[in-house]
Amino acid sequence: MVLVGPPASGKSSFVRALIARGCIDEDAVVSSDEIRAQLFGTAPTEAHTDAADAQIFMERDRRIVARLAGGHTAVAEST
């Protein structure tokens, strides 16, 4: 499942509703925003460059492939 949209469009709310209803496991969600925070913390100048975006989305894709290869559901949540 791929969720894409502008910030504050409801992607995270939709995912939380799916989790609450038991439709997906919380571990299935692969969020580019969470990866950005994990990789760059609170360094906004470093976190919002083209190089950072490339690193973030490469890591997102790696995590998705790993989940799918293991037979698990993956939800790509990205802006």
Shape: globular
What integer is the average pLDDT? 88
Radius of gyration: 13 Å
Helix/strand class? alpha/beta
Element string (H = helix, E = strand): EHEHHHE
Distance between the termini: 14 Å
Helix content: 40-55%
Main beta sheet: strand number and arrangement? Answer: 3 strands, parallel
State which percent range the strand residues make up.
Answer: 5-15%
Uncertain parts: none
**Count of helical segments?**
4
Oligomer kind: single chain
> Count the strands?
3
Strand line-up of the largest beta sheet: 1-3-2
Written account of the structure:
It is a single chain. Strands 1-3-2 form a three-stranded parallel sheet, sandwiched between helices. The protein contains four helices and three strands; from the N terminus they run βαβαααβ. The protein starts with a strand and ends with a strand. It is an alpha/beta fold and 79 residues long. Helix 2 packs across helix 4 (50-69).
Keywords:
alpha/beta; 79 residues
Strand-helix topology:
Blueprint: E1 2-4, H1 11-20, E2 29-31, H2 32-40, H3 44-47, H4 50-69, E3 75-78
Parallel strand pairs: 1-3, 2-3
